Amino acid sequence: MLKLEIDTGEKSGKVVRALENVNYSVAGLQLVQDFSWIVQRGDRIGLVGPNGAGKSTLIKLFLGEIAPTAGRIKFGTKLDVAYFDQGRAALDPNASVADYIGDGRDFIELNGQSIHVVSYLKRFLFDSVQARGKIRTLSGGQQNRLLLAQLFTQPANLLVLDEPTNDLDVESLELLEELLLDYTGTVLLVSHDRQFLDQVVTSLLVFKGHGEIEEQVGGFSDWIARGGELHPASANARILPDRTEESAEANEPVANPSSPIDEAAGYEARKQAKSEQRRLQRQAEQIPVELQRLESEETEMMALVSQPEFFNQPEAEQQKTYAAAQVLRTKIQALYDEWAAVEAALEATTSD
Questions:
Q1: φ, ψ for residue 157 (rounded to 5)?
Q2: Which end of the chain is more exposed for a tag (fewer CB within 10 A), N or C?
Q3: Would you state the pLDDT for residue 50?
Q4: What's phi and psi for 216, nearest 5 deg?
């Protein structure tokens, strides 16, 4: 079996990015202040800090999507960038999962070898039914996993991942972790999952608010052990009247300043939350399978009703078929309602 790994493509230049005294502000808010930073090939950097502190802004500067208000950025050579941003992703709910990955083809090229789309999806924990089903039948976590699966079909020597771990179950987290650990390119990663950061990154950028960014060696636990502590970015908590691409970071909610940093309690809380998330995830995965079965049955019934021969039947037989179709529609609607309730509960567990 072909080992699942990210295709790095051509090796990039030694220096990926060099930032010199970079500043960025918008609507009077200082999101990056006098920041100098060199990213070299193979670096694995985690971005941590409260929402609104400037993480997404720095990513946009890093990618060249916005220009600094002061300072300069030197871009490296031979870069193939893969960028994951959950908030920007647009999935066609009526497209099939397999078609989304294969762009309508049955096979994709991965590391110079041809692999069937369904086989590729199985390595991202999608079974055959899910692979051939519609995207609308997937839960939020499964759609996130699908976005990652699609991202990794393209060669990239620079991965920029903005909150890739959101909504992922434990198995998916472990798969993503394994992929990134085997990856030899450069990684820039935003995540609130401390254990994931500990496993994947070798250095941190800590966003302290007021545009201050501090570089730290090691993972999150290493930084905490040295006395590191996250502080709310209260200065950046204002809501701007017009939410533009450049100012989106400033509109994000700020972390609660009263929340204590307690590693032991935090770990136990995450463990319980993951357990509840897995339970809801199983429900969220079972419902669309049943929906697919019922909707297929309804489609077959509607195809039968549309045939001219159907109206040659006795009236009683026609009414019997109509009644059965109504029962199916009622079941389908009830399942959609149940699915929505499960998804709402699932979102509540991931937002705590």
A1: -100, 0
A2: N
A3: 82
A4: -130, 140
The answer to whether 196 touches 177, Cβ cutoff 8 Å, is: yes
Q: Which residues contact 120 (CB under 8 A, 6 or more apart)?
A: 4, 101, 108, 110, 149, 153
Answer yes or no: are the C-beta atoms of 84 and 160 closer than 8 Å: yes
pLDDT digits (tens, 9 = 90+) for 61-84: 999 999 999 999 999 888 889 998
Q: Which domains does the chain have, with CATH numbers?
A: 15-80+155-261 (3.40.50.300), 267-351 (1.10.287)
CA separation for the pair 109, 117 (Å, rounded): 10
180-196 burial, b for 16+ CB within 10 Å, e for fewer?
A: beebebbbbbbbbbbbb
What is the distance of C-alpha 144 from the center of its chain? Answer: 4
Six-digit token pair at 243?
């939410």
Give the best-scoring range by mean pLDDT among 3-17, 112-126, 276-290.
112-126
pLDDT (mean) for 33-44? 94
**Which stretches of the chain are DSSP H helices?**
55-63, 97-102, 117-122, 128-132, 140-151, 170-182, 194-200, 220-225, 248-251, 263-305, 315-351
Structure tokens that stand for 149 in this block: 């699966």
* Tens-place pLDDT, residues 224-235: 888 887 665 433
What lies within 8 Å, CB to CB, of 37 at 6+ separation is: 17, 18, 19, 22, 205, 213, 215
Burial of 334 (0-12, 13-18, 19+ CB in 10 A): exposed
Q: What is the mean pLDDT of residues 122-127?
A: 89
